[in-house]
Amino acid sequence: MTDDRIFQLPTREIPKKWLNIQPSLPEPVPPMLSPADGKPVPLEAFLTLFPMGLLEQEVSQQREISIPDEVLKVYSLFRPTPLIRAKFLEEVLGTPAMIFFKNESVAPTGSHKPNTAIAQAYYNKKEGVKKLVTETGAGQWGSALALAGAHFDLDINVFMVRASYEQKPYRKIMMETYGAKVQPSPSKDTQIGKKMLEDKRNYPGSLGIAISEAVEVAATSGGTVKYALGSVLNHVLMHQTVIGLEARAVLEDLGLYPDVVIACHGGGSNFGGIAIPFMEDKISGKRNTEFVASEPLACPSLSKGIYAYDFGDSGKLIPLAKMYTLGHGFIPPSVHAGGLRYHGAAPIVSLLNSKGLIRAEALRQKETFEAAVLFARTEGIIPAPESAHAIASAIRVAKKCKETGEKKVILFNLSGHGHFDMQAYEQYFAGKLEDYEYPEKEILKAEKDLPKVG
Amino acid sequence: MTDDRIFQLPTREIPKKWLNIQPSLPEPVPPMLSPADGKPVPLEAFLTLFPMGLLEQEVSQQREISIPDEVLKVYSLFRPTPLIRAKFLEEVLGTPAMIFFKNESVAPTGSHKPNTAIAQAYYNKKEGVKKLVTETGAGQWGSALALAGAHFDLDINVFMVRASYEQKPYRKIMMETYGAKVQPSPSKDTQIGKKMLEDKRNYPGSLGIAISEAVEVAATSGGTVKYALGSVLNHVLMHQTVIGLEARAVLEDLGLYPDVVIACHGGGSNFGGIAIPFMEDKISGKRNTEFVASEPLACPSLSKGIYAYDFGDSGKLIPLAKMYTLGHGFIPPSVHAGGLRYHGAAPIVSLLNSKGLIRAEALRQKETFEAAVLFARTEGIIPAPESAHAIASAIRVAKKCKETGEKKVILFNLSGHGHFDMQAYEQYFAGKLEDYEYPEKEILKAEKDLPKVG
Predict the structure, then answer these.
(1) Which member of A2, A108, A377 has the closest CB to residue B381?
(2) ipTM confidence
(3) CATH number of A26-66+113-234, picked from 1.10.760.10, 3.40.50.300, 3.40.50.720, 3.40.50.1100
(4) What is the pairing mode between strands A306-310 and A321-325?
(5) Chain B within 8 Å of A173 (Cβ-Cβ)?
(6) Residue A76: closest CA among chain B residues belongs to which residue?
């Protein structure tokens, strides 16, 4: 084992293929259903929202899909990202475990989101699309699509949840710097937005409302505008597998294989991205790797949700997906890990969870910030509140190793940095961090509200 | 020439020695003088402020100085930093030049400053110091010292210019996350601070005032507290040579040598850091590399200043240094490149400039932000307003190459990212950026106010 700390593959070793887990799953991903008749929605029905190139990937049963040269070129802006051995954290924990993290925070926008934004922009451009519309909460996804739009000469319109738009202006300016147009949601530019604004309580907005607004704009554009989603969908998770593929390549060079793979879980894309390239070996029984999906106790979709068909957005514009859900009516409390405030979960991750292939772990906000500050003072990087969940779960495993003496290899994904989340740290230091816990009785209401299909 | 874009040396190739330019200079760096008698200040007189380890480096005539293992270990947090070929920028400019940049923005605090902060913390710790006190303007330096303090178990107190403290709270929170104590300057905790606060115009503070406050705390501590400075001094520039040494090593591997080396210039440390490892060849006549120091037209110390002995701080607590100066009474207008708002310049850079070895270039704020936005939309990284000066100068050279057809190799230092400077971008997009120009007649006043020594 070398003494190196940062492991960086050269540009030429960016993965040339995405890994599609679908053919390797224990059973097929349940299809999306129409809420009207409960029947599977034909692929063509999605063409108002997505280009065929992405829809084909969404249902593909091909194990590997070549990454186009144009996408590889833009990936070279920041890929391969470094794999880092967290030696300083190991030392302060006194653990015999080896902790590695994949540093996706080095992407120019500060998170893993460009991995799919670049691919989505490319396939849209290829099919003649001129404009993409999307939603963003804290802004990680909107920034990523804005950067991708600059590279593929696409107009990017972002509906940003108004609470974030007003409280976190820096992300908005970042998107504008990349050339995107950003507007607060709910807006008066859509029917859904106008309807939502009739109830003043909707004024601060939510991710569910912003999705509905963006979908409406694309669906009513007559084909010139398409929609882009930053997580949840099968093709999004597949684009993110570059994370795990690079990590696997470096660990193989070191003669290592992770015993535990950890990522935070919101919609499921960064979790899928790092987990999928190691998951096949688990499904086939070749390896007994532990997979930990780390989520907020305030919004514990995988830990406490129901595995059922549900709506993905507030406006009920998107077909039903089978997923772990806390109910489409559940509005998660405003924890600082905004990217983890989603009532549902990716259908692929949900299927894996239902088969017992993943262990979901729900954490209190306070534990994640304690982990984040320890990480900053040892490894230097101030993590995004979302990524702090992965760090906290990694620390739990490392501490257990200290008790048992096990020299486990821990791999977690540092999905992003916290430079645009410093307010959250300020609240933490001021002792003002609220610790929300999902009220278990809510799940009964969620169950009652589920659409009657599937 | 390979097609790779990101060039990353492994951890084990972090430079093992700093390069001290002093023995290779055309003539010795003029000594610091006492304002009282105009005589050189003996080294021991500085012991109230700095540990002997750093003072020895300040006057050393040894060409190379070994980097202690403890420093190398903490450098491995982020070093070696990547050298990146700016292919996307080259393409959009249509230049035959090759543009490389050293990406110091990947340091956890977002700039090159930890290169010297880590070294300074180490030498202080080694000599039994418990606490370091310093000043910071926009916060880059304070963050770096805070991070270094976390690694060497030192208390860090930062006097932050009040205007920044109030307008840019995120940098303050970053320092606190690393465990530092931050207070606004002028403060009531020092004699200088109290005196300054008697005049309400001093309430927003300045770097000069903050330096004086920090120096006062150290000088009156009875030896337990020392002071740390983030630029200007010889040992600081030497610590920063890891930037240029790494860049040189990668370029050598590629069979290249830069025709032009560019960095922004404030106090001189990032410029010295990238320039010095190529400067010896210029001094000896072996190479005819062009060195460009890019500074704001609002504070053009090297371009318009006088080469003379002057005070480095407002409180006149620090001995006189021979440098290019706009006068110690000059308060630079509040351009967004806060790190470049210094009336003086590093003695080493000043000497090189006086010998015609450097070309200083003063740029309007608007040109630098145009360059920054073009860089963000092509290379992805949103640069700090300081670093945007280097980018703008690199673009000037690349455009000239397009005219002449020259295939020059351009190397510039990306000293930091702009994640904590997004307000500046907002003002730029809103057309609210003011374009200050140094009033040439001011230099007559500066000349008159110079101390009568040397």
Answers:
(1) A108
(2) 0.96
(3) 3.40.50.1100
(4) antiparallel
(5) yes
(6) B5
